[in-house]
Amino acid sequence: MTPIQKKWAVFTGLVALVAILDQWTKYLVRTRWELQNLELIPGWFSLHYTKNPGMAMGIDILTTFQISIVALIATIAITIYVVRMFDVSPMGFIVLMGLVIGGAVGNLIDRIFIARIMDYGGFFEGQVVDFLHFTLRINDWPVFPYIFNVADVAISCALILFIVFNKRFLPQEPEENGQSKVTLPESD
Asked: Is 152 one of the annotated active-site residues of the chain?
C-alpha cells in the first residue's frame, strides 16, 4: 500500500467510523426512552436527549435551513482542502481531519434527513440530536452546561489536538535546505 493509499484508507475509515458511531448512538437515544434521561455518573454525567435546531453551544442566529446549507458548504470545502493537501500532509493531519469530517458528516445527516425521518419538516430542516451532558456543578454554577453528541466529541478532540500540537500536524513541504515550510493549497 502506497503512503497516499494508506492516507486515503485512514481518512475514509475515520470519516465512516465517526459518522456511523454518531448515528448509531443517536438512534439508540432517539428510540429508547430509558436512555433519554439517564444519570450515568451521579452529579457528573448524564444522558439528556434533546434536539438542537441551532449551532454549537446553543447559538441561534440563522434558521435551521440556513445552518444546514452553511454546514454542508463548509464540510465540502474542508474536504476539498484536505484532499488537495494529501501528498504533503503528515498522517496526524489526516487523522485529525478524518475526525472533523466524520463529525461534520454525522451532524449533517441529522440536519439533512432527520426532520423527514421524524416527520417534523423537510430536507435540510433537521435538528441535531444531542444527548451527552456533563452535569457537574460548582455551587450553583454548571461547569459545562452544553449537551453534545459523538460527532461533537470527535470534532472537539481533533481541534484541541490540532491547537496543542499544530506544528506536527500542519501539511509541510520540504525545502532544498532541509527545512520544512507550511503549505497552503494553490488556487485554480
From this structure: yes
